Amino acid sequence: MLTRIKDLAIKLAPRLIEIRRHIHSHPELSGQEYQTAAFVAGVLSSSGVHVQEGVGKTGVIGELKGTGNDHRLLAIRTDMDALPIQERTNLEYASRQEGIMHACGHDVHTTVGLGTAMVLSQVAEELPGKIRFLFQPAEEIAQGANWMVADGAMENVSAVLGIHVFPSIPAGSIGVRYGALTAAADDLEIIIIGESGHGARPHEAIDAIWIACQVITTLQQAISRTQNPLRPVVLSIGKINGGRAPNVIADHVQLLGTVRSLHPETRANLPKWIEKIVANVCNSYGASYQVNYRQGVPSVQNDYALTQLLQSAAEEAFSSDRIQVLPEPSLGAEDFSVYLEHAPGSMFRLGVGYKDRTINHPLHHPQFEVDESAIITGVVTMAYSAYKYWMHG
């Protein structure tokens, strides 16, 4: 079966590169993936895969039924949305949409999902169970997985596999990670309320900008002194709104940020911990405050057995020196974690770096590029892992 999968993938390679370049040239933002979804649905239909459109707003589901009696249902999830970034790669197939770019490799993910469906549809008679392909919108705004789940995408699913490109791993290799792969990502809003006054008479006012600075500094210092350093927390304030004029002391400042953590217990304690620090600083200087903490997506926790399945499938398909067991998680976030609340799963890292380049630009960079030979590595890994899933009880 491995030989058949590899041969089919290699034959499909030119078509898959064509598909990837088409998607790359026509990127769409989160929740607006109408053209991409229609294109995906067309490719799936022409491969004999049963298609359901409009799932999770702009998502697509493809279902492929094997001929066996295994009732387990395996889901394979890929995402389709692009980022609001102006592309600066000068590629002939660069984005044709002003200010929108596939800078996170979702064009590659979608292509790998389609390639896996195309390969497995040609060996369906050898599959003991059913596969559901989830083409998800709006991963970049951490909404799409929730939309898909709300529309029944995970009903009866026994396990789910995912993929994400990784420019620091060379094309032809993959990375697997046991346990935590990504961080939980939460949204933070802090409002400092002071009292306005003349810039020349600060003692008559309560300076919300100065107090906001104290809050930011204290939070950053407190992380290193009060949080367990073996359980990382990253708190970044990315936006500050406040003030009306250079000579008027501001009475109102809004801080907006993101909070990343890996451990569920740490995450559960963060809202109270943050509020206590904000309260102490504000009380010291006579200001009042509001803290609004919104939980976003949880941490991706890869299932041990399914990660082992991915690793063994890739080692059989390629060689063990092309498989990296990643020693560290990422503090980036992935709403793949939402699916893991409904079934065990594992996401692997697909190496897309060019071996001969000194710089492979990181994800979300306007010059981010991928070595397209990685697409076949992704398709073979995913398709063979899917086949092996039913072979392992």
Automatic annotation (TrEMBL):
Gene3D superfamilies: 3.30.70.360, Zn peptidases. Residues 188-283 form the Peptidase M20 dimerisation domain. Pfam families: M20_dimer, Peptidase_M20. Signal peptide: none annotated. Coiled coil: none annotated. It comes from the Bacteria. This is M20 family metallopeptidase. It comes from Plectonema radiosum NIES-515.
